[in-house]
Amino acid sequence: MVAPKEFDVIISGAGPAGSTCALFLAQKGRNVLLLEKETFPRDKICADNKTWKCLDIVKELGLWDEFEKLPRARITGVLITSPGGHELYTPLHPNDVEEKGPWYNVRRKTFDTMLARAAKRNPHITLNESCRVTTPIWEGKKVVGVTYLDKNGKENEARARVVVGADGSQSPIARAVGFPSKVKGRFATNTRAYFENIDVPANACRLYYLKGICPGYFWIFPVDEKTFNVGIGMRPEDIRKIGKSMTEYMEEIIRSPRFAPLFKSAQQVSEWEEWGVSVLGKRRPCAGDGWVLCGAAGTFAMPYSGEGCGPGMRTGKIAAHAIDACLTANDVSRKGLKRYEDELWHVLQPEVSGFRWLEFLLLHEGVYDWVVQRAANNPKLIEMSSHMQNHYALSQKMISPGTILSLLTTPPK
Fold this sequence. Notes:
Number of strands: 19
Radius of gyration: 21 Å
Number of helices: 13
Shape: globular
Helix content: 25-40%
Strand content: 25-35%
Mean pLDDT: 94
Low-confidence stretches: none
């Protein structure tokens, strides 16, 4: 075993959450060890959507010029289809687009590599690839480092004042501290592949909520001028009900009368691949004595949509600021690092409260049909939905008396 080396912070996982946390800590002059189990460029199974939650942080990190060189699709709206086939198209609000630009869809393989390159360039960050974290190192009840296997399979130790678990939905750090990333009732299995030449415009994210799989959905997201990310996310109990594999079910959907015309000239250009993730639910600890959890390791994918990249980067940014303050105060105890948890949930709570209502609708497919059918014919509700694409907390307004009255008095489209 190689003798341990000490850092201010060790981060397990160099995806969007981990790399963002490392880069913000480096801005504060903190020395960071960033451990990634794969070697870049590496793929990451994802829907590839980059909302303003993600893009604002890319700009803040000074990476926008590099981002603009990546192959990408320009996204100007979101199309939602209810189980009954009713459609609601929500354009990104013109004021937000004027201020921030549109959304973009970018493959994780290229996006994550961009972040990794930025980490490699930074003198305060040591990025070690092909290094798989196995367990945290404990002193009593406090985490003081990690054990990891390097590319040669040799076991190493590294120590730091804080360890960040940003190592995804199978996080060994989250599991070791007692808060595993697979949460009963919040977990979904997803599969996706890339297709070329699907007969839909390449400027919108398309979410199809199909009968029998809500709150899961089938998606078609463009990632460049001719390539689309096609996938589906479902709860385990709904997968069991369909009685077939995710791949078989996806191919059945694509061949169905509803979707076959869209795929008539399409070519599948990658294999189907699966991954699982838990979406955000009730508040639970994401910080303790010497450790914090970010991104999918902390189950911070958004409810309703499953968006993970932007929310993950947001957790990395908030964690970095809180960790820096705790290091300065020389207090990396649970009490000190709870600062991260409190700051994060100050942002999350209003969003989660609203999204719970949308999840309720999806679990009652007939009600969701009714709402979508009327919202699509109500300019004020479309405007509200448009604002929600930037301000998720506005989802709370969906349950206001005024909104409900507006739905009741709007004829179906």
